[in-house]
Automatic annotation (TrEMBL):
Any one Gene Ontology BP term: cell division
Protein name, per record: Cyclin-P3-1
Taxonomic placement: Eukaryota, Viridiplantae, Streptophyta, Embryophyta, Tracheophyta
One Pfam family here: Cyclin
The keyword Cell cycle appears for this protein: yes
Keywords: Cell cycle, Cell division
Family from the record: Belongs to the cyclin family. Cyclin U/P subfamily.
UniProt signal peptide: none
Recorded superkingdom: Eukaryota
GO molecular function, one term: protein kinase binding
Length: 247
């Protein structure tokens, strides 16, 4: 049976028909959605990152996206240098593609934000989820897996902390992958996290501080990216995420 999408709510993981019958134990979320209190919302750090209260809309590109893309790109460059010199070994996962997409991390994040309609806070939470995924696996962030990890983690974050979100088919179109593949990525991601999606206010604040310090680490600002219309396909086959090499 093909799972169209998963919805996370206060009662755990909702199942569609009997899709979860193959699981021998009941799977529930480590509950506790991120509740951003007033002192954080009004803090200089929160405002400096361009984070807004959920549902209030954002004008322009939030600074947090620039900082996150810079941090991820530098992490990818560092890991690939270490891999080339055999200083670290990478585990091939379902998130690895056969080749790196032509879109940079910055361009990909811009595209996701423009069309997903999710809050800027989702990208901070997604960053936390990716860190947890990497800690639970032997994988390293590289140009072959960063795009799939981004679209999957942002989608999961949107489902967990935002009031409104789209189905997997829509996110798949935004991310340049098939719906079937995104379904598999989501399942693997959730199981790798042991379905623990809770993010405490302290953890959220810590990651915000980490991103804010990225400026001192060498933030590189690229030219503004004009993403193609969501109703259109990617400009070329090379622009979409290449087929995964691990199933």
């Amino acid at each position: 049976m093909v799972l169209d999408f998963i919805v996370y709510g206060s009662c755990g993981v909702y199942r569609k028909e009997n899709v979860w019958q193959f699981v021998n134990v009941t799977l529930t979320l480590d509950m506790g959605t991120l509740a951003i209190d007033d002192d954080i919302v009004g803090s200089d750090l929160y405002l400096a990152l361009g984070l807004k209260e959920l549902g209030k809309g954002v004008i322009g590109t939030p600074r947090v996206l620039l900082l996150l893309s810079s941090l991820l790109e530098r992490s990818v460059q560092k890991n690939e240098t270490l891999l080339e010199t055999a200083q670290i070994k990478d585990a091939i996962t379902i998130f690895h593609g056969s080749r790196a997409p032509t879109l940079s991390v910055r361009q990909y994040i811009d595209r996701i934000f423009k069309y997903s309609g999710c809050s800027p806070s989702c990208f901070v939470v997604a960053h936390i989820y990716v860190d947890r995924f990497l800690q639970h696996t032997d994988a390293h962030l590289t140009s072959l897996n960063v795009h799939r990890l981004l679209i999957t983690s942002v989608m999961v974050a949107a489902k967990f902390i935002d009031d409104a979100f789209f189905n997997n088919a829509y996110y798949a179109k935004v991310g340049g992958v098939s719906t079937a593949e995104l379904n598999r990525l989501e399942m693997k991601f959730l199981f790798s996290l042991d379905f623990r999606l809770q993010v405490t206010v302290e953890t959220f604040r810590s990651y915000c501080s980490q991103l804010d310090k990225e400026v001192a680490g060498g933030l590189q600002i690229e030219r503004p990216f004009q993403a193609c219309g969501i109703k259109e396909s990617w400009s070329s086959k090379e622009d979409s995420c290449a087929s995964t090499i691990a199933r």
